[in-house]
Amino acid sequence: MLPRIALVRLVCRAGATFGTSASSYCTASTDPSFAAIKPKKINYERIGIVGVPFDKGQRKKGVGLGPKAIRDAGLIDHIQEISPKLNIKDYGDIQYEALNFNGRKVGNMKKLEHVASCSRHLSHQVTEVLDDDRLCITLGGDHAIAIGSIDGHLHHSKDVAVIWVDAHADLNTNSTSPSGNIHGMPVALLARELCDYWPYIPGMDWQEPIISIKNLAYIGLRSVDPYERAIIEKFGINAFGMREVEKYGIREVMRMALERIDPEGQRSLHVSYDIDSLDVLEAPSTGTSVRGGLTLREGIYIMEEAYGTGRLAAVDLVEVNPAIGTPEDVRRTVEAAVHLLVAACGHSRKGDIADTLDLLQK
Fold first, then answer.
1. Which residues of the chain have pLDDT under 70?
2. pLDDT for position 67
3. Which residue among 55, 113, 142, 166 is the active-site one?
4. Known active-site residue 143
5. Catalytic site residue 183?
6. Fewest Cβ atoms nearer than 10 Å: which of 163, 219, 337, 362?
7. 121-132 burial code (b ≥16 CB/10 A, e <16)
């Protein structure tokens, strides 16, 4: 089997057989000085929004309408209500052309030519937003877009911790996925510990799996495939399913998650949030809903705590599908998405901070 990345890249090869230690790429993360890199303080007064109307990572039509539905629900106006000082820039939607693989294919990776191209464009855009000193909000689209958004974040900050809020682990490879839908594979594509579980993937030479799986924490899991569970246990991935949320409460789960993926409180934080992490009663218009999920109240708390670290640099909100359900279902789902994103931008449920106290002095 060829290595996943082109051979011109240095690869620290080791046994790739399941049950042995996976190798990692020779990247900056192996440099002793890498741990000393501290993220730049996030400027929460500047926010950038990127739309990704992408639906090729799964088979249900309509999820590409998510960015428009969320914008049309007044997202920017709701964020601006937090403070008139906020500088909000909408960078528009990602545009791309599918790659031509000239007959080269990878088994069980549907629409790879679309995923690879869209992800690369998104990666560049996310890096641009972060380089412009803005909190980056990415609106999906299906969860395959996280390949590009997290890669773009890594190009900006290098040392990144990820909170993956989802009913599903999205940890399959092309050899284990029951569907071949790439929205179920992004974590496996991003993690350096899993690089040798992949063949060479045409069109993805630009993307190096340099983030450690130990720097990621799941919250909200309740539909995990057998292979995904095996990988979670093998690598000791921080996974807080709904059972843990019920056992410890969302406050303690967030505390433990942040402590484990960023014990020194120095990493740039990325929250990749699938709307199906919420219970179907809270967000019915999504393609792979699973009963027994987070309440909207718990979901908002996750965003509030992430923002409260002062290190939240990027957020994905994915899998809103306005083509599923009744108009009331769509309204409820989109409204939930807006609540989550406004919390990620600093809205406080106890009231936003006044810009002036002049009226109280009279």
1. 1-40, 356-362
2. 98
3. 166
4. yes
5. yes
6. 362
7. bbbebbbbbbee
Identified catalytic residue from 114, 153, 168, 339: 168
Annotated active-site residue in 208, 276, 279, 316: 276
Of 151, 225, 316, 319, which residue is the catalytic one? 319
Q: Is 205 annotated in the active site?
A: no
H helix or E strand, kind and range, residue 124 = helix 112-131
Helix (H) or strand (E) holding 331: helix 327-344
**What are the tokens at 279?**
């219970």
Rounded Cα distance, 331 and 93, in Å: 22
Q: What is the pLDDT of residue 361?
A: 64
SS (H, E, C) 240-266: EEHHHHHHHCHHHHHHHHHHHHCCCCC
CA distance 282 to 334: 10
pTM over 0.85: yes
Closest residue by Cα to residue 147 from 92, 219, 94, 87: 94
Q: Say how far apart CA 142 and CA 324 lie, in whole Å.
A: 14
- Helix ranges (DSSP H) in 158-225: 186-190
The terminus-to-terminus CA distance of the chain in angstroms comes to 76
Write down the catalytic residue from 55, 142, 208, 274: 274
Residue 358 designated active-site: no
Specify the pLDDT at position 3.
46
- Which of 182, 168, 299 has the alpha carbon at shortest distance from 241? 168
For residues 213 and 194, is the Cβ–Cβ distance under 8 A? yes
Instruction: Give the per-residue pLDDT at 352.
Output: 79
Known catalytic membership, residue 355: no
